[in-house]
Amino acid sequence: MKEKGWKDLAIGGRIDEAGCAEKFETGSWRTFRPVRDEEKCTHCLRCWIFCPDSAIEVKDGKVTGIDLDHCKGCGICEKVCPPKIHAIDMVQESELSKEE
Questions:
Q1: Taking the alpha carbons of 80, 90, 68, 87 in that order, is the dihedral positive or negative?
Q2: CB within 10 Å: which end of the chain, N or C, has fewer?
Q3: CB half-sphere exposure, 44, CA atoms < 13 A
Q4: 8 Å CB contact between 86 and 44
Q5: How many domains are contained in the chain?
Q6: Helices assigned H by DSSP within 24-90
Q7: What is the mean pLDDT of the chain?
Q8: Which residue has the higher pLDDT, 75 or 15?
């Protein structure tokens, strides 16, 4: 299938199809990645509420992970995590690549 060129895009960035963001993996834009400490996490769901990319994965009222295919590394999850808990740290992608 041929990729669309700029002339094929909707005028003004109009979105013609609901839910189309799921089709695009935008996680490669990240410079920093959220790393969650499962031991510290109290599942308050503040990160889930505030995440603009809906990248926080929740099942049965508990945080189960982070969808790194869609997380852009904005750091909001780290900022809204209660300071006394501090279960999320933003870590530079280049540092994680060395460790993995």
A1: negative
A2: N
A3: 17
A4: no
A5: 1
A6: 46-50, 76-80
A7: 87
A8: 75
